[in-house]
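Tutorial sheet, problem 5. The two components below are modelled jointly, 744 residues in total.
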Amino acid sequence: MTSGPKAVGIGRRRPRIARDSTVAVAIFLLPAIFILAVFVVYPIGFTVIRSLFSATGNAFVGLDNYRRIVTQPRTLVALRNNAIWVMVVPIAVTSVGLVFAVLSERVSWGLAFRVLIFVPLVVSGLAAGVTFRFVYAHDPDVGLANAVVRSVTDVLRPPGAYAGARPSNPERVAVDGETFQTAESLTTGEVAHFGFVAIPSAQIPESAAAAPHHIDPGDFGDPDSIVAGVVWFDFTRGGGGTRGAVDDGELGLPDVIVHIEHYGVTVDTTTTDRSGLFVFDGLDPGEYTIVLDERSFRTPFGGLAWLGPGLITGALIASYIWINAGFALIIIGAGLSGINRDYIDSARVEGANELQILVRITIPLLRQALMVVVVTTTISVLKIFDLVIVIAPESVQADATVLALEMWRASFGGARDFGLGSALAIVLFILIIPAMVLNVRRFRLED
Amino acid sequence: MIPGKSTMNTTAGQPRGSLARLAKLFSSASAHTILVLLGGLWLLPTFGLFFQSLRTPRAISESGWWTVFTDMSTLTLDPYRRILGSPIFVRSIWNSFAITIPTTLIVVSVAALAGYALACMRFRGRDAVFLVVVALLVVPVQVALIPVAQLYNRLGIFGSIIGLIFFHVGFGLPFGVFLLRNMYATIPYPLFEAARIDGAGHARIFLTIGLPLVSPAIASLSIFQFVWVWNNLLSAMVFTRPDSAPMTVAIQQQMRNFGTNVDIIAPGAFMQLLVPLIVFFAFQRFFVEGITGGSVK
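Model answer (structure tokens):
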């Protein structure tokens, strides 16, 4: 490297020439070195030392600030959340990027698709955060995520026609979740009364007819083989009426599914007619319980609390993936276009299926690109800040918090605890050092 | 018989071919379907933000933005009128430019010089300096927030735009130097040699050979730096005051009362997003090349 100035290396990449003058080098290099020294290198040293001092910096406290990080509940939550982010996100982003890259190679408009996925990369954490605050709104009428979930749950578990109904005669009706049943068992020849209130009038079907005042099981055959009843809307327009009794003009609730049980075993099932009447006949004499099926009373899907303490980290991770899938796609897509197609084509000729090709050929050949995505994402995830502070409402920030947020809060969020803040910054820095070493090693090998 | 229609009763060779063709058709059809769905999923949130920015707070709290497709009457430009009538917000737009443009220019200039030195000049410790730059690529800004804030306090520039600019320059430089140095390193050496033999000094080689040949990388770096600083929230939250705050900080400060300030937040966020979006679509190629050049080697 430092041999004689005139020697011309034969077969070397570059001929040896004289070193450049110190002045010339300094003019080119010093601005960068000065700025890096002042704003990056010196601060690292300062922060390391500052982390050993108290909040105000007056007292040396040794490692006490680090002890606080691993004992205070809030910073412990931050550590836990950072661990979740690091375990989940790099793998998730890489997988999404790989799938996108492979799929978009197979269609003619793949480039347009890629550009579309790149777009969120230029969206700030703030704008993405605002965007996802809307997506995660709790009310399924308002928030996109819950609207999508509702469209699925409405198919799998349709809401009942009389959702929200409450019995008007609670002493005679037992409530079990969303099913209602007679509080005491009936014997054949008796009549069950299920009066309901708290149903919005709009939910009562047009077809509903006035509920019968009086039901005589004898009208339907041998009273000893019959249990009848009525399910009705125990509400008289304009007020008045007796609770628990069918008054003039009160409407029956049609199409309620009714089961009759004998010691817990369902004997028969029927549906109420237009006037809310139901009749079971052909019963053996004995004791029965009438059960109204929950399907008529199911409350509609009210929305998942994406922004609540339980789901917030998952919701944040989903928005992170939305932003960074484009990055993975760019890197993996570039790697993919560098792969020798012959490997894949000959495997296909040999009869390998697409999954085999992906796992056995594409992924191993893309190893380097995949590693770049995993490492870069890990670094970025460790520093995650914007999405958390923007998306997580104040009340759940204690549950959603991460190291970078705690560092900001401790130092600039009011507490002015520069000791704890410095220690948190150093913890973050230490966590990133492996990636730093990896980068340096990669470049030293190359040179 | 129509070839490929029936696979059951054809001769030995044919079913296989038509089955494979069918399978291929199916798999490419499903690839189309999946990609259309995914594309929609990736587009919807941004669409949502756009439409929300044109609705009243009341409409936002009562119905989803997708209802505008059936009822356009809820759309209004009032939120934009309101936000553009707010002096603080308009100020923040100017601040965003006043922070971003100088940062970009300084990073590009300083990195162009340093990258040239690290690739095209010969001096003791060159490789060590470059490896330090590589190491600094991933340093989190958190390690510098407190010391630089205290430094600015002593210098009396805490809260000023110039302070934030230099902080951004410090953390933008490693990537800039790295990207440009790698680009300079691809220039064929004989080019320099010929210039040296002609008696050109480094200043002339830098201006006539170096800069023109790395201009694509400079374009990438400028775009990155612009978008990165424009979108920055954390450093700006620490180093600015209300009169020097960029858009990101101005909007973030309204987030505490999301429901009531939504008519400022939504149009503000959309305007904040629009600028990098325009940059992206105008310079897409450089953007993509910058990402690959900065990561895969």
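Marking note: Confidence is low (pLDDT under 50) at residues 1-15 of chain B. Full credit if you identified this.
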